[in-house]
Amino acid sequence: MIKISKNLTFQVIVAIFSGILAGVFFPAFADHARLISKTFINMISMLIAPIIFFTIVLGIAKMGDMKKVGRVGGKALLYFEIITTVAIFIGLLTANFIRPGDGVVPKLSKNPSNLSATKDTNWPEFISDIVSPNIFESFANGNILQILFFAILFGFALSKMGSAGRHTIVAFENLSQVIFNMMKFVMKLAPLGAFGGMAFTIGKYGLATLIPMGKIMLVVYITCLIFIFVILNFICYLYKFSLWQYLKYIRQEILVVLGTSSSESALPSMIQKMERFGCSKSVVGLVIPTGYSFNLDGTAIYLSIALIFLTQVFKIELSVAEQLSAMGVLMVTSKGAAGVTGSGFIVLSSTLVSLKIMPIENVTILLGVDRFMSEARSITNLIGNGIAVVVIAKSEKEFDEEKYQLAINPKVAQEPVF
Fold first, then answer.
1. Biggest CA pair distance of the chain
2. Which residue among 82, 169, 224, 388 has its CA within the 20 to 30 Å range from the CA of 204?
3. Which one is predicted more confidently, 366 or 382?
4. 3 in a domain, yes or no?
């Protein structure tokens, strides 16, 4: 029993249930719970930039081939676009089939002033912004794409120094180990973060808010499960690794995301775990950070379902052509969701503005339940990004089968060899 109680997975599960009870019986505690969760996520966030930087620099410096870096990046972006398109299509399909908006009486917020639509995505400007005029500011703001670009250049320059750069590589390896040791300490506080996040959600919004909007929540969760266990499972089958073993391997990260409603809370540990899973450091460093902007499968599912839900609630019939047009817009607007605070509403709002099918204020009917659906989309994002790393690593022959077997069968490493 003592051994179980020291297990991080067990501690996070207990913390989640404790948070639910605290939110139900002590709703006034919600503001304090938010600070607990926010502090934990901030501790994770402060490690994300240096971990990404050191991981990419060391991976490229040791690989030394920019053609290979470009090939890995190109494969990753192509894979992201295909998979997120499939996610959007499945979301539209299930929303049209189950029709979660039928029978819902719209109750709009009296104070929708906290909503604002983003501008339509300007791709030349988006690409230009990847190059930072001040990299220290990028680190301070946690701009992942700018850090990613700078790290690629830094790694390439370091690889060209040959033996002269060896001392720098050793120093970076030591610094990287220090950061990962910090991450291990922070992850021990994951139960507190999960407790605070769940207590805040239940305490602020209450379980009663789920009843009238239960159908859309059910559709989002069902669709995410279909996507994971059908689409992603099929991809795992094609690339000859087990979805179940993978999910078991990252169970702690899944529970942390469930408690905090933030996939970023698991980003540092996912980088380390995917390396242990058999993927090379360079592939992990390139694919996971990029995936947090371009491979948001859960967010894509949520946006497509929420859009159709709103049209059903407000009796707006969209033709097949209009839905395909909406799908095209979502393929663009969903890509910037990760870097936006309150991304669900802002990205959905920008989509509505682009399509010109209803007032932006209509989004406010989702305010009460959006937080309860963020767990589903965040977990789906997390799982999808990890699988993307394995796919790209295997396609590049950068996957270590022995590490994979040790990851899914840790007892094997402990057995004596005769």
1. 73
2. 224
3. 382
4. no
